[in-house]
Amino acid sequence: MTIPETMNAFVLKQHGGPEALEFHTDWPTPRPSPDQVLIKVGACGLNNTDVNTRSGWYSKSVTAATTNAAQPDVGEDDPSWGGAPISFPRIQGADVVGEVVAVGGRADPALMGKRVMVDCWLRDWDDPLNRNKTGYFGSECDGGFAEYTVVDHRNARVVDSPLSDAELATFPCSYSTAEGMLCRAQVEKDDTVLVTGASGGVGSALVQLATRRGARVVCLASEAKHADVARLNPVALLPRAPAHLKKALNAAIGRDTVSVVADIVGGDYFETLIDVLERGGRYTCSGAIAGPMVVLDLRTLYLRDLTFTGSTVLPPHVFGGLVSYIEQGEVKPMLAKTFPLEELHAAQAAFVAKEHTGNIVVVPGTAHP
User: Fold this and answer.
1) Looking at the DSSP assignment, which residues form a beta bridge with residue 337?
2) SS3 309
3) Nearest 5°: CA angle at 319, between 315 and 320?
4) Could you give the count of Cα atoms lying within 13 Å of 277 in the half-sphere of its Cβ?
5) Are 89 and 72 in contact (CB under 8 A)?
6) Which of 180, 203, 292, 323 is the most exposed place for a label (fewest CB within 10 A)?
7) How far apart are alpha carbons 267 and 158 in whole angstroms?
8) Are residues 259 and 290 both part of a single domain?
């Protein structure tokens, strides 16, 4: 196919509110380097990293919850997720699904013409387990809020699935994040896992992936979304933040503790969550949308032999495993809504409002219902 010289793209010019994202109809189409492939983007999912990077939320000066607005006192020198500033201009968007339309000289030629999902973690492929040599697609390099994007050929994973591009674009960030959390917490079939924010992208992925491991899953979610979350078959559904969590758990599952808390919310409810961990329990976290500052009684941590794990950089095998789960139908997409690429501002506003269940996706051209 003929590759156009320019393309439609949303470009982040600086940290700020939605106005920092500018839509261009004549942005230069990238060309693959020798190790890269060029992907014609079919769909790109939204995630918290996009919003948090754009707003400047990763700055240590910020103590509030995730917001769509610009964070105060944040400049270009403030860090991204990895602790270092990103460079502008930047095309964001990590959750890319599309077709490989060109390959570099050292890239795998078998990828040409294949539908692929992008593994979001950028690695030094001579030292792939080194967390200090990682970056994130759409953060440390341009991503998928555009008609075309490039990525190292080892990050382009062929996927054989009847699902649409938009449905597949719900998986890369949310589901790999969730699987990484469960790996770090060593979740097994005998565990009872309490999932916060269970109606969101990562939350709904946690429910499915923990259930896939044979664990019993208890969900915390807004009661207006319980019917949607119930489709994932948790053993119990509770309100988003019960005033008496132990009593609610006991009524729902016959015990007032759990072995694992998988948390992406943080904020004021953190202390309550820690209080329901059994002795030897594990807390795993990969987000803090309700706020990063929490209260922790260190006596609870050590006297109850608890284990806390943060989860960000994933081992390389996690994404390959996720693709196999998709191909075998072991997980299903939770596609809430799609927007045309040019309506990214509206898509991010809907994403931050959290009135949806699952994931929001942008697609070049006309969105699907």
Assistant:
1) 360
2) strand
3) 105
4) 26
5) no
6) 292
7) 38
8) yes
Q: Which residue's entry shows tokens 């953190």? A: 270
pLDDT in tens, 236-290: 999 999 999 999 999 999 999 999 999 999 999 999 999 999 999 999 999 999 9
Q: DSSP class of residue 146?
A: B
Looking up tokens 């942008």 gives 362
| Domains identified in the chain, total number | 2
Residue 315 lies in a domain: no
CA atoms within 13 A on the CB side of 197: 28
149 with 68, same domain: the answer is yes
On whether the CB atoms of residues 334 and 204 are closer than 8 A, the answer is yes
| Whole-number Å distance between alpha carbons of 64 and 184 | 26
Same domain, 24 and 159: yes
Give whole-number Cα distances, 314 to 31, 94, 114, 273, in Å: 28, 15, 25, 25
Report strand pairing: 36-45 vs 156-158: unpaired
Q: Helices (H) and strands (E) in the chain — how many of each?
A: 10, 17
User: Model pTM?
Assistant: 0.94
3-state secondary structure of 61: coil
Q: Where are the alpha helices (DSSP H) in 213-294?
A: 226-230, 245-253, 270-275
What 3-state DSSP class applies to 154?
helix
**Count of other CB atoms within 10 angstroms of residue 297:** 11
- In sequence order, what are the beta bridge partners of 152? 36
Range of the domain at 268: 183-310
Answer yes or no: are the C-beta atoms of 134 and 121 closer than 8 Å.
yes
Note whether residue 118 is domain-resident. yes
Q: Beta strands 359-363 and 335-340: pairing type?
A: parallel
Over residues 21-52, the pLDDT tens digits come to 999 999 999 999 999 999 999 999 999 999 99
Quote the DSSP letter at residue 40.
Answer: E
Shared domain for 115 and 196, answered yes or no, is no
d(CA 181, CA 345): 29
